[in-house]
Amino acid sequence: MENKAVENGVCSTESVNVSCDVWSCKNSDSSSSADHLVIMVHGILGSNADWKFGAEQFVRTLPDKVFVHCSEKNMFRRTLDGVDVMGDRLAEEVLEVIQRKPNLQKISFVAHSVGGLVARYAIGRLYRPPKKENVEDSTDGTSIDDLKTTIGGLEPMNFITVATPHLGSRGNKQVPFLFGVTAFEKAANLLIHWIFKRTGRHLFLNDDDEGKPPLLKRMIEDYGDCFFMSALRIFKRRVAYSNVCYDHIVGWRTSSIRRTIELPKWEDYINKEYPHIVYEECCKACDTEQSELISTDDDSFDKLEEELVTGLSRLSWEKVDASFHTCRQRFAAHSVIQVKDQSMHIEGADVVQHMIDHFLL
């Protein structure tokens, strides 16, 4: 059962007391005039209420332009079922929304924590290559990549992740609350599936379903019937927001898709407009030959991590680093960057605003 709520010019539907869809109430026909679908995905053990503040800010700032759907098919304990299972559910959910809103033309994703991996899996399922007749009818020299390649039939625009463990969680200092202690990290690698079930195996890259490579390794290429990299490539923008410190769940290296030697010096960076943004850079796509010049040691964890960095770096990324080291809630940075709890973590509002101000419509 759904109820419609209206607050400060923002309309939303409510299901089981949490928001599902958010749109502008500026005009009576606003829910059908917005043609840009924004899918917001929560993290592990989360719910669609986690993005409530972000969804409302998107709609207030971009009225009649965006229709926001906060994913609800993988909430709470269902987030332990595995990145692939959650990705399949999300893909189905997106298609359901598109079917309900036939006016939609564009699509973007904004995903927090493990939700970023789920979204990457889902777009691999939603990838739609150009129809054969469109390619055959092209006579102007347009390449196949420039034709109507879509995500679920919609034009892909922004793919934004927030504190997402793109490189997994098992490398050194990738889970900061383990303090970088090798014994703790090895123990976590052995025990994680008891706590976070199948999702934990995927995050620590020790899954071996039917002898296949770890899922995160499969996701740096087109694998089987999932077009993971082809789908990620066709988005106009790919953005990774990261916490440089005080995120005890997801490390800076994994969330920003960087090697240790690539982590920037951020302490002297000043941004008056967005006080908690401490560094920004646009990273161009790096080809395989360039990546192979970077040496790695013999540690198997590092080798696998290097493969993930190299794979994802074949695409261009905007990287935005945030720090809440001056905030009272700094120890909850993993939630603050999402403004998961508006009453407690309003400090992260400028990061969400940065996201909106740079959003490609």
TrEMBL record:
Xref: Pfam families: DUF676 (PF05057)
Domain DUF676: 32-254
Coiled coil regions in record: none
InterPro entries (alphabetical): AB_hydrolase_fold, DUF676_lipase-like, Lipase-like
Matching PANTHER family: LIPASE ROG1-RELATED-RELATED (PTHR12482), LIPASE YOR059C ISOFORM X1 (PTHR12482:SF14)
Descriptive protein name: Lipase YOR059C
Record organism: Populus euphratica (Euphrates poplar)
Gene name of the encoded protein: LOC105124165
